[in-house]
């Protein structure tokens, strides 16, 4: 972490960048939040640890409008979102100086709590272990037991775009990314409906998923615009509460990099990534494997036409 | 608020028998904006149109809903009526209560309910309609013909004779197509080459016709009157300007054992070859896959012997981009593969051949120099069995459900020619039905039966089994005598079903022209617009549209030419005003719409945008309305909803959905 701060200060001092997108300590030590640093003093609050799951790519949209370059710290998976935004002309590559930071998987506070840990005071990380100081004494947990679900299906620790890389990464992928989706696919229509009914009925429409999503970067969201009847609609029935998430899933289909931020930030713990991952699976199967954000040039299969494309009938037959 | 008039058509009994038209009109009156509703026997008649015009004047209507047939049928009629009444033609909406409703319902109650709902949707849409004004686009006075068979050649000649430039793109090394492979033609028995080659020569010599052989269409963009087409001239490995067509290269080529496509694999050709003697252009092609020079780097004999120095091993594919006002598809056909028809032993015996192969065998320039002989041992056959409908009228999904149409006649032709030249040969034809509608066709068939004593057996063949004595045991059935037939034959000829040429699907996709389940191109109307594709500016010539014989093909080729000429004769076309528009305040500048636009109509520009007082220069989409065809792909792909289609706005469509779901 110190290395990152030192490098950030250097770049600020020599004028290479005019601001820095990183993380700083939040209300609790284990709850860091995205931050924009404009001078060296502010950087003393910079933090990078296992709880810095937040993907900073989206903040580059605003940073691209500023004079001068912004230093942005990106984890390997964040670089996919950055590339996707670059592809969609939402950010300016010239305005970003990218330091790729190492990642050994990010931690889930929920999982730590689920492990029966209460009254957390401080959390320190070791290679494979997590030490938790609590009001009721210390506890040690295996890192792999408390990783965010998304880190178990990690896309890989390679930065897809960067100017320099600082820090080591450790592979955390140990699960099949589509196993959750396949489990749902096996359900009957009724079971599926009940499953999503149960999950989505928890939604309080706080918009956190949308606001954090790098693919949901529209200047004006259709749900906020008075041009559409969908704007700020109150859930008047059980169908409409699903509409928001289903429409959102359609809007990011083919563009979603599966960064998993939607599920991470949902205060109700709705597994929102499942919608997106189902689309990714379908796209892979119908059009060949595609990973949004792998680079900033390839046109996605949903916005390109080739003669090898699946015929509509195939999709119909799959149901 | 609009003042809407609703006009419900009976269409005689077409609609009125299944839909209570009066009730539809009554219900329509309850809808918001509707100030007038009536029903009438035939809205499209002059009297019906006058009812609309009078109502517009009397009730000051601003919008019109006609509940009638498909808009493809009469939308233009009613738009013109609106224009005559003095309101904008785009204030008319059609509720299709015929094709979408009365024709598919039996129960009047259900039909009426649906008609009311469809009317409601159209009314909801008209409430949001705005007047639209069409623009103009130019017409490039040049036609492209895809396919250089008899259909393509005839269309090209007719268009060129009318004074327009024509390009023919043919994928094989020579024009001529399937007809060039035929020996004689029914019902006159004149030699195919004798009547085809003069036309090939005419096309090649015509100052308005330009022929690209060994070439394929790579890409099509644009729209009626203004297509841009990329043509890939495949590397021939020969400099066409230098080649004199002397043929020495083919003679000397050491690689001579390549099955000749022209002879349906029955004879061989060299690696450098012209497909047949009368080929146009008379310039060979190097088949790079089989050429020793290309395979090993050694040889180069053709280059050594070529006096003209025309051989060019380095030649590369060339892309030619050209503009066209009209495109005619004349891609023709091939026979189906017989792999699934094991019972006829086609893959087991050389003496079981297709009719197209028999054409080559009977042809003086063919593999046997025109002698009828068994391909296995060269012996003269004494007993020949023809089997009709091999893969045609076949509901087993191995073949085609349709009738290939030409087989009855060419089988009669083959039978007659054989009996004429070799009276010692017995000829038996197994058939399901003999179909001979056409001028002088039935007389032709009767001659085969009565004068030439061809033995016609109504019934199908279950199996052809090669025997140890070299003969073929044909097991068939005579349905009229109700008995099994076992016949030892020396040769069996299969009247193999025809199907559209394999590449047609790709071409149809490039042209956005629709095709049916058998890959035949669809007509704009099966009866009234049989040579036009539903895609404006695309015309159909020959078998690509459906099975047909040579006289029919030539007639259709001429008809397609007339339609193309009608288009090329115009200087300007009115464009569809239902084009896309970007809301700059909502546009993210993400380029997704430009990626999906099939017409290249969307560009991006850096523009200063004033968003409620906040000025910002940013990237936004700009639609070129001259190129936009209103397909709407951009509107559904735009994540922010910035793209909208005039005449089919998101609001209008959602209003229709809401009205239907109400």
Automatic annotation (TrEMBL), chain A:
It comes from the Bacteria. Residues 194-224, 247-277 form the 4Fe-4S ferredoxin-type domain. The keyword Lipoprotein does not apply. PROSITE patterns: 4FE4S_FER_1 (PS00198), 4FE4S_FER_2 (PS51379). InterPro entries: 4Fe4S_Fe-S-bd, 4Fe4S_Fe_S_CS, Helical_ferredxn. Pfam families: Fer4_8. Keywords: Iron, Iron-sulfur, Metal-binding. Signal peptide: none annotated. This is 4Fe-4S dicluster domain-containing protein. It comes from Aequitasia blattaphilus.
From TrEMBL, chain B:
Its cofactor is FAD. Residues 234-263, 282-316, 578-607, 619-648 form the 4Fe-4S ferredoxin-type domain. The keyword Flavoprotein applies. Keywords: 4Fe-4S, FAD, Flavoprotein, Iron, Iron-sulfur, Metal-binding, Oxidoreductase. PROSITE patterns: 4FE4S_FER_1, 4FE4S_FER_2. Belongs to the HdrA family. This is CoB--CoM heterodisulfide reductase iron-sulfur subunit A family protein. It comes from Aequitasia blattaphilus.
């Amino acid at each position: 972490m110190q290395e990152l701060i030192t490098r950030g200060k250097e770049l600020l001092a020599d004028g290479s960048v005019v601001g820095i997108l990183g993380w700083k300590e939040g209300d609790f030590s284990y709850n860091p939040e995205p931050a924009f640093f404009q001078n060296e003093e502010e950087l003393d609050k910079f933090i990078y640890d296992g709880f810095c799951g937040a993907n900073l790519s989206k903040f580059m949209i605003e940073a691209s409008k500023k004079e001068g370059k912004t230093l942005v710290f990106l984890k390997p998976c964040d670089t996919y979102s950055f590339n996707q935004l670059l592809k969609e002309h939402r950010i300016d590559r010239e305005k970003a100086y990218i330091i790729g930071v190492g990642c050994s998987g990010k931690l889930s506070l929920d999982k730590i709590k689920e492990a029966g840990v209460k009254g957390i005071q401080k959390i320190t990380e070791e290679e494979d272990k997590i030490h938790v100081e609590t009001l009721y004494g210390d506890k040690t947990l295996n890192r792999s037991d408390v990783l965010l679900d998304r880190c178990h299906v990690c896309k890989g620790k390679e930065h897809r775009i960067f100017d320099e890389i600082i820090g080591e990464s450790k592979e955390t992928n140990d699960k099949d990314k589509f196993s959750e989706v396949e489990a749902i696919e096996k359900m009957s229509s009724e079971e599926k409906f009940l499953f999503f009914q149960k999950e989505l009925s928890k939604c309080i429409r706080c918009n956190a998923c949308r606001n954090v999503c790098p693919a949901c970067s529209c200047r004006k969201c259709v749900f906020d615009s008075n041009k559409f009847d969908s704007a700020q609609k109150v859930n008047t029935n059980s169908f409409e509460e699903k509409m928001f998430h289903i429409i959102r899933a359609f809007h990011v289909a083919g563009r979603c990099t599966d960064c998993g931020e939607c599920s991470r930030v949902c205060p109700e713990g709705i597994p929102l990534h499942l919608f997106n991952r189902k689309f990714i699976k379908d796209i892979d199967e119908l059009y060949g494997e595609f990973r949004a954000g792998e680079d900033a040039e390839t046109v996605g299969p949903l916005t390109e036409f080739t003669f090898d494309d699946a015929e509509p009938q195939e999709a119909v037959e799959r149901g | 608020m609009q003042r809407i008039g609703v006009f419900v058509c009976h269409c005689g009994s077409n609609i009125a028998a299944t839909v209570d038209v009066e009730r539809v009109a009554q219900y329509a009156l309850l809808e918001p904006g509707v100030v007038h509703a009536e029903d009438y026997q035939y809205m499209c008649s002059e009297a019906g149109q006058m009812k609309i015009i009078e109502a517009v004047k009397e009730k000051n209507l601003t919008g019109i809903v006609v509940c009638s047939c498909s808009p493809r049928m009469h939308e233009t009629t009613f738009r013109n009526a609106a224009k005559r009444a003095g309101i904008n033609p785009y204030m008319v909406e059609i509720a299709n209560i015929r094709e979408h409703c009365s024709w598919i319902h039996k129960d009047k109650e259900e039909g009426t309910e649906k008609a009311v709902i469809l009317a409601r949707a159209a009314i909801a849409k008209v409430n949001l309609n705005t007047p639209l004004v069409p623009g103009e686009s130019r017409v490039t006075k040049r036609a492209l013909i895809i396919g250089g068979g008899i259909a393509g050649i005839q269309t090209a000649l007719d268009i060129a004779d009318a004074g327009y430039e024509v390009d023919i793109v043919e994928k094989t090394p020579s024009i001529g197509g399937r007809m060039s492979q035929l020996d004689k033609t029914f019902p006159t028995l004149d030699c195919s080459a004798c009547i085809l080659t003069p036309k090939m020569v005419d096309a090649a010599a015509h100052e308005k016709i330009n022929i690209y052989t060994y070439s394929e269409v790579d890409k099509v963009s644009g729209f009626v009157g203004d297509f841009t087409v990329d043509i890939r001239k495949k590397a021939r490995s020969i400099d066409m300007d230098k080649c004199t067509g002397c043929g020495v290269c083919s003679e000397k080529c050491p690689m001579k054992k390549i099955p000749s496509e022209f002879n349906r694999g029955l004879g061989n050709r060299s690696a450098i070859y012209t497909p047949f003697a009368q080929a146009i252009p008379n310039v060979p092609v190097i088949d790079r896959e089989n050429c020793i020079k290309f395979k090993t780097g050694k040889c180069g004999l053709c280059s050594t012997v070529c006096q003209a120095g025309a051989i060019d091993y380095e030649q590369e594919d060339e892309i030619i981009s050209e503009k066209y006002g009209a495109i005619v598809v004349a891609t023709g056909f091939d026979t189906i593969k017989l792999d699934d028809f094991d019972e006829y032993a086609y893959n087991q015996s050389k003496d079981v051949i297709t009719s197209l192969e028999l054409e080559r065998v009977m042809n003086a320039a063919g593999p046997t120099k025109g002698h009828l002989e068994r391909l296995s041992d060269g012996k003269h056959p004494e007993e020949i069995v023809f089997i009709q409908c091999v893969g045609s009228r076949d509901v087993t999904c191995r073949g085609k459900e349709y009738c290939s149409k030409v087989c009855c006649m060419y089988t009669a032709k083959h039978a007659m020619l054989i009996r004429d030249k070799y009276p010692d040969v017995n000829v038996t034809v197994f058939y399901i039905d003999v179909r001979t509608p056409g001028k002088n066709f039935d007389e032709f068939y009767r001659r085969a039966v009565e004068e030439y004593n061809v033995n016609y057996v109504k019934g199908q063949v279950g199996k052809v089994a090669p025997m140890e004595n070299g003969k073929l045991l044909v097991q068939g059935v005579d349905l009229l005598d109700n008995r099994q037939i076992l016949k030892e034959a020396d040769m069996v000829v299969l009247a193999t079903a025809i199907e559209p040429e394999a590449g047609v699907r790709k071409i149809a996709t490039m042209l956005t022209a629709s095709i049916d389940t058998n890959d035949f191109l669809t007509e704009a109307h099966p009866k009234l617009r049989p040579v036009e594709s539903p895609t404006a500016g695309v015309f159909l010539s020959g078998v690509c549209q459906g099975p047909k014989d040579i006289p029919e093909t030539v007639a259709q080729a001429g008809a397609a030419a007339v339609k193309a000429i009608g288009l090329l004769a115009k200087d300007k076309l009115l464009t569809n005003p239902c084009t896309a528009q970007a809301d700059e305040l909502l546009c993210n500048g993400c380029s997704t719409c430009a990626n999906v636009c099939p017409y290249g109509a969307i560009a991006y520009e850096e523009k200063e945008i004033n968003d409620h007082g906040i000025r910002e220069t940013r990237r936004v989409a700009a639609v070129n309305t001259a190129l936009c065809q209103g397909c709407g792909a951009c509107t559904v792909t735009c994540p922010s909803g910035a793209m909208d289609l005039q005449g089919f706005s998101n609001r209008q469509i959602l209003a229709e959905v809401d009205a239907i779901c109400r």
